Amino acid sequence: MAGALIEIEVKDDEARAALEKLRGKLASPEPVFRDIGEALTNNFRDRFGRGVDAAGHPWAPLSQVTLDRKRKNKDKILVLDGYLRRLAYQADNNGARIGTDRIYGALHQFGARKGEFGRTRRGAPIPWGDVPAREYLGLSDADEGDILDILHEWLVS
Description:
By secondary structure, the protein is mainly alpha-helical. Helices cover 41% and strands 6% of the residues. The protein has one domain (14-156). It has five helices and two strands; from the N terminus they run H-H-H-E-E-H-H. The chain has a two-stranded antiparallel ribbon. The protein is elongated, with a radius of gyration of 23 Å.
């Protein structure tokens, strides 16, 4: 390094031990990512049940066409059999991922225009109508606070 330099050496045994403990935790952070994944999955499921996005805004209502075609759970948005609501997380030393394995999950999260994904063999548009985005995944301010609380607790424990 060119120019001025200041070197800091930690001589206190207690401080060195704390730094070594921190280094060990940072080398294998999977446990804290599991805690974050669990907390956020619970938060997302709660909002899903209330039919709101991360900012607390209600999802777009179902169209009359959808209501007429829906066989069950007519009063529930994004719920026919309940598969989309089965959110899960995966955690490792690189982070946590939360979502659904349902292929139609992205359609509902981001929305789509009628025919945006092409046509069926019979020529019908996919999707058959416009689908508004109904964001069931996303971080709220409270989620961010939960993450910080979990990280703080993990670092100081």
